[in-house]
Design brief:
It is a single chain. Helix content is 12%, strand content 46%. Strands 1-2-3-4-5 form a 5-stranded antiparallel β-sheet. The chain is mainly beta and 121 residues long. The protein has one domain. The chain is globular, with a radius of gyration of 18 Å. The longest helix is centred in the first third of the chain and has 9 residues.
């Protein structure tokens, strides 16, 4: 049996986007473009489609994400992409479906080769 451990980043339980906010506070961008993606859109009739294995083990029932394309010099090149996403999964545990929010956020920065690299805060 695997022992149950506590969350090593329990401070992020109340605000999973704290690392993004800390990064912007330390290095403010001067321009950004923001957009979002949501599956719960009644007009667009959004949904999530899963393969059978996922449906059995961790069925994704909702997805939302926000993206920020950022520039650090006014009128300059957009060199950073930050995002947060929430994936709501139904996970069967001992005959009960548990709704589990899988929340992630991160920042990717553009290097001199015109592609983005992942920066873990």
């Amino acid at each position: 049996m695997i022992p149950i451990r506590g969350n090593p980043f329990s401070s992020l339980n109340n605000n999973p986007n704290q690392t993004l906010q800390d990064g912007v506070a330390a290095n403010p961008c001067v321009q950004y473009i923001q957009w979002g993606v949501y599956t719960e859109n009644p007009v667009a009739k959004g949904s999530v489609t899963n393969i059978p294995f996922e449906k059995q083990k961790a069925n994704v029932v909702d997805y939302s994400a926000n993206y920020w394309l950022q520039a650090f010099i006014r009128g300059g090149e957009f060199t950073q992409l930050s995002y947060n996403q929430t994936i709501l999964m139904n996970i069967p545990i001992n005959g009960t479906i548990v709704k589990f929010p899988h929340i992630t956020c991160n920042t990717l920065t553009k290097n001199n080769k015109d592609y983005f690299i992942l920066c873990i805060a």
